[in-house]
């Protein structure tokens, strides 16, 4: 009876009371009510083991502490009086306090510490958020929930699913550990670790996080996200993917504006677009990407370089309009195609089947190709329209103040000697090309020209105004690959955005991946 006297248990209600002093038992039947340290326990019937300080309750279990909590809906109760721990089971066991409602089939609740735990799954409603998990515990004093296995947090605007989650009700912040996915109408977020404030809807994700919407995504080592403002800030090994265009940008930092579908990528960024076996590379100081379903645009700013097998170039800035397959280069761009160097004030390139179809050069248009050291075929004018076939130059139309210098051969074989040079000026000219060689030239609008024997061509006449041979500035593919590999390996890009496609096992010998 000593233990019984220490537990301060008061029987305050019951239709019948039976005792068995030999066995140390009390039987309570009908409308049972017990008070223990300010907590009321009610049930249909109960058995107390006085020497053990335990109680079993049966039917309509109801436990409450005024202005604190209620625990109801159980069919069976096992109560340890010394530790003030209640284990309640039933079809729908419900724990309620001022801020939350927890529903499960079996709950252990320590009344003294106000900590509840479950292992058979539970649903929790907390200020508009519904949380589910297989296992978990709730610390009412600190308003902390810990969830484990099949965790799901649902709000009116999004869902969060993962393996392990801690939720602090006082700050309305969820901390998650292990693979977690957050889905909303606007986007999906994949991460491994981080926190999410469900009140102001700000979050920080670490250990490689991905934010995706429609057919594009941004992945980075860490990600800060403000859902209300629709702003994301990515840091470390950033990868932007547009799966429709097979377009990728990597860098170290990035900003994402969800409301306008605009992203900025900077700190040594580089972009690539996979085009069959001819990948298109771009590097610059900053990239701008607008993922608009109708008018998708990429812009590159400051110190832009481009590389493709048949086309390399440099300019100050560029714009790639995916919606009409147009690439524009601004501020004195220069391009190299096969043996040709093309320059001007502005260029507009029209693609067809992801290959160059036409190139319009506006202002100080110039085309040059080296015939031998210090001797160059040259074409210049106000405007130039270049047409291509399979990325190879096929014709050049020069409009306005057209000029040309063309070196003549005995025949068109590579071993033939140059014998003369033709210099012509006219209003317009058309040059037809074949394998980088001039096939035919047509002059329009009062052509004026002179043909010289090669040994009589004055050195002062060799170059048209604006001629500057810059072949030493041609970008190399390794510049783009090395910058990209420093951020996110190219092989990893393909694995991340195309996980369903099997990748070949790497050989022991180190080599650059093909793209």
Could you explain the architecture of this structure?
By secondary structure, the protein is mainly beta. Among the domains are: 1-115, lipopolysaccharide transport protein A fold, CATH 2.60.450.10; 318-475, Lipopolysaccharide (LPS) transport protein A like domain (lipopolysaccharide transport protein A fold), CATH 2.60.450.10. It is 5% helix and 64% strand. It is built from three helices and 38 strands. The chain has a 38-stranded antiparallel sheet that branches. The longest helix has 11 residues, at 477-487. Residues 1-6 and 497-515 have low confidence and may be disordered.
Topology:
Elements: H1 2-6, E1 9-13, E2 16-20, E3 25-36, E4 39-49, E5 54-65, E6 69-80, E7 85-96, E8 100-110, E9 115-118, E10 122-126, E11 129-133, E12 135-139, E13 144-154, E14 158-168, E15 173-184, E16 188-197, E17 202-206, E18 209-213, E19 216-220, E20 222-226, E21 231-242, E22 247-257, E23 262-266, E24 270-273, E25 280-283, E26 286-290, E27 297-308, E28 311-321, E29 326-330, E30 334-337, E31 340-343, E32 346-352, E33 355-372, E34 375-389, E35 392-409, E36 418-434, E37 437-444, E38 448-453, H2 477-487, H3 490-497
Features:
single chain; 515 residues; mainly beta; lipopolysaccharide transport protein A fold; 38-stranded antiparallel beta sheet; 3 helices; rod-shaped; disordered N terminus; disordered C terminus
